[in-house]
Amino acid sequence: MHVIMTIQVLARMLSEAQAALPRECCGILLGTGNRFTEARPAANVHPEPETHFEIDPQALIDAHRAARAGGPQVVGYYHSHPTGAAEPSATDRAMASGDGRVWAIVGTDKVSFWQDTPDGFRALSYLVEES
Ligand SMILES: [Zn+2]
């Protein structure tokens, strides 16, 4: 499986990660199926934001409510690793719910994509489409 997004979605995650330093940024991926149409930043409300993230619960509630009202679906989440690799950390694995959504992880030099399956994170490839 692969995911598809515009260069704007990819660039948004990279710029958010840069702006949040030295903290982790986080946000919600909106779209349909495996296509992301928006990376929407959210506040990182975790008390240790340099090494953890917790997406502002209100932002999630709002996104799910908008999805039920016919808006884009909540297809995944993104967060950054300010000093680490673009792959799930032990903390990420502990937090994963196995709900099938996609996690985008912004490392120091790239973004990687993972599906949160009941059997753990599965690496996904990605395509950037013309906008
Ligand atoms: Zn992480």
UniProtKB/TrEMBL annotation:
<protein>
    <submittedName>
        <fullName>M67 family metallopeptidase</fullName>
    </submittedName>
</protein>
<dbReference type="Pfam" id="PF14464">
    <property type="entry name" value="Prok-JAB"/>
</dbReference>
<keyword id="KW-0482">Metalloprotease</keyword>
<dbReference type="InterPro" id="IPR051929">
    <property type="entry name" value="VirAsm_ModProt"/>
</dbReference>
<dbReference type="InterPro" id="IPR028090">
    <property type="entry name" value="JAB_dom_prok"/>
</dbReference>
<keyword id="KW-0862">Zinc</keyword>
<dbReference type="InterPro" id="IPR037518">
    <property type="entry name" value="MPN"/>
</dbReference>
<keyword id="KW-0479">Metal-binding</keyword>
<keyword id="KW-0645">Protease</keyword>
<keyword id="KW-0378">Hydrolase</keyword>
<dbReference type="InterPro" id="IPR000555">
    <property type="entry name" value="JAMM/MPN+_dom"/>
</dbReference>
<feature type="domain" description="MPN">
    <location>
        <begin position="3"/>
        <end position="131"/>
    </location>
</feature>
